[in-house]
Design a protein that fits this description.
The protein has 174 residues and is mainly alpha-helical. The chain starts with 13 loop residues before the first helix and ends with a helix. Strand 2 and strand 3 form a beta hairpin. The chain has five helices and three strands. The protein has two domains: 110 residues, Ribosomal protein L17 (50s Ribosomal Protein L17, Chain: A); 34 residues.
Amino acid sequence: MRHGDKINNLGRKKAHREALLSNLASQLIVHKRIVTTLAKAKALRTYIEPLITKTKKGDNKESISHQHRVVFSYLQDKSATKELFTVVAPKVLSRPGGYTRIIKLGIRPGDNAEKALIELVDFNEIYTKGATKPAEAAKKTRRSGGAKKKATTEETATTEASAETSSEETKTNE
């Protein structure tokens, strides 16, 4: 029984499952979208999203090279790791998560398995046609609305100044 077991074993032993997910992840990084079964796509999403998040955790050179080694230990593919850090990481820098999209494609005629397309969200030109170039990641602070308060105080100061000038103009006209 697998009560409370959250991992989908995909009908494979641990080593075979890790090799499968590693190969699927490498192909997804290289081709930006792949077609597979729905169960494999859902398992791949939980496998690759933490790897993409690791590409954003580079403050200094040592940290970046460490993340390279960690990601390479999962993917076992040098070209896919390089592509992930050089091409994919800059595009997903401002995205807080949800780097993949799964689209159901129906059933496969041979064995009636549900097919799905899994793709990297930022590389779909159809959905991101109107989107602009991604900005830098927003700096997270514990303060709430410091910049907003500053902007609103400036706006109120300018409106008060314009109100004073308009009241002076009405006095001179009278």
